[in-house]
Amino acid sequence: MRRSVAALALTTALVPFPGSGAQASGGGAGTVAGGLNLVPMEEVTVPIIEADRIAGNMRFKLVIEAASVEALAKAAGAMPRLREATVAAALEFARLNASGMRAVDAGRLDHDLNAALKAAEPGVARVLIVEIAASYS
Q1: N or C: lower Cβ tally within 10 Å for the chain?
Q2: Looking at residue 30, what is its pLDDT?
Q3: Cβ contact 131:60 at 8 Å
Q4: Cα separation of 92 and 108, whole Å?
Q5: What distance in Å separates the CA atoms of residue 126 and residue 137, rounded to the nearest whole number?
Q6: Strand, helix or coil for residue 7
Q7: C-alpha distance from residue 1 to each of 4, 79, 119 (Å)
């Protein structure tokens, strides 16, 4: 059965291609139309340890949504502390729940990161995982 070009184009338009997502510019915190207060975090990479060796790594990128413009400024200034909390939570997650041989449970990681970052900085409304991958060594 042949598909029409229009149907194929519509199907292709709905497929998320690597690198096709929105890219932030400026490298700093900012307020986006619609009242979202977002600040990106640099990519985080943590080892996946299985038994007594490093079996791979897990890497991810986050965007932190602050509750207000004031909380956004505070979160941007507290980025080293937020990154420390992120790495600690990700190491624990990778130790217990990650493998380079299976997909990362992004829902569980999201839960763990939200709890850790909200505890580190009360002005954090939520953590958005925008990219995640695990690899096997």
Answers
A1: N
A2: 61
A3: yes
A4: 12
A5: 32
A6: helix
A7: 10, 54, 55
* 67-82: pLDDT as tens digits: 999 999 999 999 999 9
Beta strands 53-66 and 30-32 are unpaired
What mean pLDDT is predicted for residues 108-115? 97
What's the rounded Cα separation, in Å, for the pair 66 and 104? 25
In residues, how long is the chain? 137
B/e letters for 90-120, b = 16+ CB within 10 Å, e = fewer, are: bbebbeeebebeeebeeeebbebbbebbeeb
What is the average per-residue pLDDT within 16-42?
A: 58
The single residue listed with the structure tokens 């909380």 is 71
Q: Which has the closest alpha carbon to 28: 71, 60, 63, 68?
A: 63
pLDDT mean over 32-39: 75
Helix (H, G, I), strand (E, B) or coil at 84: helix
In one-letter notation, the amino acid at residue 26 is G
Mean pLDDT for the chain?
A: 81
Tokens 């009360």: give the residue: 122
For 61, the token pair is 């990128």
pTM: 0.74
